[in-house]
Amino acid sequence: MTRIHVTDASGASHVVEAPNGESLMSALLNAGIDGILADCGGGCACATCHCYIEGDGMDRVGEANSLENLMLDSAAAERRDNSRLSCQIDVTEALEGLKVTVAENA
Amino acid sequence: MENAPETNADQNPEEFYRSPTTTPEADPWALPLEDIDLATGAIFQAQKHHEYFKRLRQENPVHYHDKNPEIGPYWSLTRYEDIMAVDTDFERFSSEPSIALFDELLGEERAPMFIAMDPPRHDEQRGAVLPAVGPVRLKDLDQLIRKRTVEVLDELPTGTPFNWVEKVSIELTTRMLATLFDFPFEERRKLTFWSEIITTPPILMGLTIEDRLNHLGECLQTFTALFKERQFEGNESQDFISLLANNPATADLEGVELLGNLMLLIVGGNDTTRNSMSAGVLFMHENPAEFQKIKDDQSLIPSAVAEIIRYQTPLSYMRRTAKEDVEIRGKQIKKGDKIAMWYASGNRDESFFPDADKFIIDRPNVRRHMAFGFGIHRCMGNRVAEAQLRIVWEEILKRFERLEVVAEPERVEHSFVHGIKALQVIAHPKGNKP
Ligand code: HEM
Ligand code: FES
Question: Per the database record, which ranges form the 2Fe-2S ferredoxin-type domain (chain A) (predicted)?
């Protein structure tokens, strides 16, 4: 388990115990985090699992591939430098203490 | 025409294989399980498919049938959870060579299209056309779609019956497609015609195989000309053709390779959106209390649209092919086996949707319906389809007290496309009430 600090779409804070090896999206969805819709079930095909990765997190979560980049352009909420699709991030110990803010997904 | 895909849809309709056991008259609960052939258009036409699915979900959720000579052996998944698991696992379940049980429903084996490709080719080609339905573009489209919807609804006869499918569903869907392609608007009915040519055996349209190839040839020619015209540096247009023409992944497509993706984009959004538009009118007619809910509160329209799509499920299934031996619920599926993921069944799975057989426009988890699929092939056009359907209901509510269905709907005999051919409707205009 890896602890993730989450600010949900309505601004509330949570600490989510995320199972290693799963996607960050599944962990957030299973924790019932407000704003994670994940319409496509993790296929990088809907952009409704969009999050902002806070602090130094971007160095830890790896790079977005080209399709994710395109999907981020078509996300409902503003794309920022720290935008990622949470279904494309695998939870590992290296993410302990990661801080993420859920975008206004629609 | 050298480059047109050949087709296997050249049989005489009299000679179509029809299951001798799975018929509209058969009792879905009494047939031996192994005699159930879900790929039987007639049970969908007769709306008997729901009972078959209900039985299989209960008794045999991973079902095997090997008596259909046209398809060969295939598995059927009927539970929400199992369909979801396979749809999101492209590594073990391939979309190649075809996403229909009949290998070449759309001719995809010879005219390659990205819905029937695995990564990385799928990702490159999907990526190329994605901006056509991106959020910026959607905002512009919203206004255009509304304008065109208003034009169509304002011309409808009131007080006398007309075919809603022809006058509204086909017309609006065609206009929407013409907009996405930036296709010459006056010639838009060509798109509808080509879509029909692609999905219908020629004989059912009174055509020979040669006629069909000629029409597909004309389709390719027309699009190739537009493709060339729009292929230039600095073209920022976001229509499908400009995007395909100017993206490095697709700019060199020609002949059947180009035709394949055009066919996907023409067909993908056509019957699906059209049939949702027709089915919605039928469902609201049959469920006046649900219709009353959107009259009372228009903010429920998006949820109602999702419920219409769930309840109709315009594409009954997508097929995958196992890339390795896998076990699902104790059944041994072998590498190379065909698997149908029956969205039509998952969408009525009682363990996921309480009262699944009821049409309830404000059900809490309606957004999680399966009609758009999941995973990397999740429908690319769902936002456009939803926008078109939302707008049509908003504009209907402004004009009509109700839409009365005055005859039994005529349905399509098809196990893949779940559709309505004709729906006779009388539009009752609003009184002088505001
Ligand atoms: C209510 C309307 C619609 C329904 C029910 C629908 C349904 C589907 C389904 C079930 C899939 C396959 C998902 C999978 O394999 O997991 C799909 C894929 C696709 N749809 Fe739709 N669709 C609709 C409207 C549209 C529209 C309007 C367009 C385009 C303008 C469109 C374009 C596509 C494309 C391009 C794909 C292939 C995506 C890929 O392989 O990556 N669809 N659709
Ligand atoms: S869940 Fe759809 S893109 Fe992440």
Answer: 2-106
Name chain A contacts of B126, Cβ cutoff 8 Å.
67
The answer to whether residue A103 sits within a structural domain is no
Q: Which residues of chain B have pLDDT under 50?
A: 1-14, 433-434
The CA A86 to ligand 2 mean position distance, Å, reads: 7
Query: Which ligand lies nearest the alpha carbon of A28?
Result: 2
Domain assignment present for residue A105? The answer is: no
Nearest CA in chain A to B372: A40
Cross-chain residue pair A41–B134, CB shorter than 8 Å: no
Looking at the CA of B137, which ligand is closest?
Answer: 1
- The answer to the question of residue A36 being in a domain is yes
A43, B376: Cβ pair inside 8 Å?
yes
Task: Provide the CB-side half-sphere exposure for B238 (13 A, CA).
Answer: 13
What average pLDDT is seen over chain B? 92
Which domains does chain B carry? 8-429 (1.10.630.10)
pTM of the predicted model as reported, rounded to 2 decimal places: 0.94
Rounding to the nearest 10 degrees, give the CA dihedral for residues B46, B50, B55, B61.
120
Q: Whose structure tokens read 């469902």?
A: B283
Q: In CATH, what number is assigned to the domain containing residue A83?
A: 3.10.20.30
* Closest protein CA for atom 15 of ligand 1: B377
Structural domain boundaries, residue A62: 2-97
